[in-house]
């Protein structure tokens, strides 16, 4: 049982230390009382004895009447069992014996960790969930008068709300949408604690544990889904390649010269590496028909030139020479291939 004028240490509340300011004032008053008593004894002045007694009494009562609350604290003061005031921050005075400070409330944001072990989800899967709630006292009067131990009550309410949330949610939802679960818990806990003067600022689910056997099954399911998706993507890629090949075949069928150019480009690409030796059959060289390709090119150039112009006449005159050059190039390619 606490003495009047001193702090009561109730469940959920921390013990309050002394007030240095009140202690200093008490020491000064007691020193003045001693000095007055000494002067009264030397001068045989009884008034000084009375002053010394008064100063000593005030010095004794100052620590019990002068209190100080920090900036984040509030003090709940009762007078003869009734609520007198919620004082603080800073210095405040109470009447000794009549008034008493029963609560020192911390209004800073605080945290409470809670969990739910082996809680069954909506699809009857046992899970272990760890979470933390951030809360703050917004009404010190209600927090002091409406509930005995608000810290313990917040922990119990958080655990109960967590089990309710897990029981009404599917395991897949808990794992994939934690933000939604956090918001549901914050609203539920805040609704229950608002009557006590406590605000639930936020709730964060830190970890969700599932049985090992279920983890293996989920891993195999995810792997199978990824393999199925990979096969689908591969099939789509094969379809796209086949469509492009069909388009290219149609273009090559309409233009043999384009097919020959493509074949020559393939040969060039394969012989770019130094030291590479390519054995090419004669039939393949004949199929590419470089002389015919050169003739087609020259014919196109001649068709572009206007008849009667010097460029056209030069093209007609030089056709036999160009054909002989093309034949010589083909023969040289054949000899090189045979070697």
Describe this structure in words.
The protein is an alpha+beta fold. It folds into 3 domains: 20-103, no CATH class; 110-210, Band 7 domain (Tetrahydropterin Synthase, Chain A), CATH 3.30.479; 278-338, no CATH class. It has 12 helices and 8 strands. The strands form 3 sheets. It has a 3-stranded antiparallel sheet with strand order 3-2-5. Strands 6-7-8 form a 3-stranded antiparallel sheet. A hairpin with a 2-residue loop joins strand 2 and strand 3 (82-87). The longest helix is centred in the last third of the chain and has 43 residues, at 212-254. It is elongated.
Structure summary:
This protein has 339 residues and is of the alpha+beta class. 58% of the residues lie in helices and 19% in strands.
